[in-house]
Amino acid sequence: MSNTGPPEHRGRDLDDRGEIVEFVTRFYRDIAQDERFHHYFHTLAAVDWHAHTLELTDFWAGMLLGEPEDHRDAGEVIEAHRWLHDADAFDEALFDRWLEILNTTLDDGWAGPMTDTARRRGHGLAWAMAKRLTGHATRRT
Q1: How far is CA 117 from CA 38, 39, 64, in A?
Q2: Is residue 8 a part of any domain in this protein?
Q3: Which of 33, 72, 94, 134 has a beta carbon 3.0–4.6 Å from 76's, enabling a disulfide?
Q4: What is the pTM of this model?
Q5: Looking at residue 46, which CATH number applies to its domain?
Q6: pLDDT tens per residue across span 59-92
């Protein structure tokens, strides 16, 4: 069965782990398949998607729900991407595209205060990663 359109809007907020799992699955699937990001996932790194999805879910659940207690902080996540940046430097267009996919994923799936928090935190993460890795911050919106 092929997917011919965007997934249905969930009609929910990102206020529990199940919704965050769905968000992470949709968002990073679209990131990995995007032409701007494809080679990072398929050429530079052999990604174990099951393990990576669990890590990403823990990260977003930590940012949004305060769980689990041992989640990585944003600084650790940024540093975990340094080797990719060193192999093929990130640029402003890459961060802009990441934010575009983030916004589309959120808009197409969720609404509510925690969804707004996810958007703000995602924008803050992109800003911090751009600043730390490239020396230039992205536009904050």
Answers
A1: 27, 30, 7
A2: no
A3: 72
A4: 0.87
A5: 1.10.490.10
A6: 999 999 987 665 677 788 888 888 889 989 999 9
